[in-house]
Design brief:
Order of helices and strands: EHEHHEHH
Distance between the termini: 13 Å
Strand content: 5-15%
Shape: globular
Helix content: 40-55%
């Protein structure tokens, strides 16, 4: 029997989400290192809604989106009622790709599973 083909990152910030205090869904060590490399998860990794209070109290949507993509999440949920704010998050990721801070491989569709 096959396991689930997607995982959702969680926005909750526990006592020690990572050694640095970074929420797990923004941690490359957790998303890529643990899920992809150590646990060999090949499905789609989806963030929790980045417009939720657990995230918005610490990060703006553009910064949260960039951090989520850098960590290795495949699908970033931009649950903001403000379409302009969503567009600014998308533009922030595009700027990071253009500058080379995020590789094109990270944002290109890949077959998972």
């Amino acid at each position: 029997m096959r396991g689930p083909e997607r995982r959702r990152g969680d926005h909750r910030v526990g006592r020690r989400p990572t050694a640095s205090g970074t929420p797990a869904l923004f941690s490359r060590a957790v998303v890529t290192g643990l899920l992809r490399e150590r646990l060999k998860f090949e499905g789609v990794i989806v963030t929790d809604g980045l417009g939720m209070g657990g995230i918005t109290t610490l990060y703006g949507l553009p910064d949260a989106s960039v951090a989520a993509v850098r960590a290795g999440n495949d699908l970033v949920l931009l649950n903001s009622a403000d379409a302009g704010y969503q567009a600014s998050a998308i533009e922030a990721v595009k700027q990071q790709v253009r500058s080379g801070a995020i590789s094109m491989d990270q944002v290109q569709p890949q077959r998972r599973g």
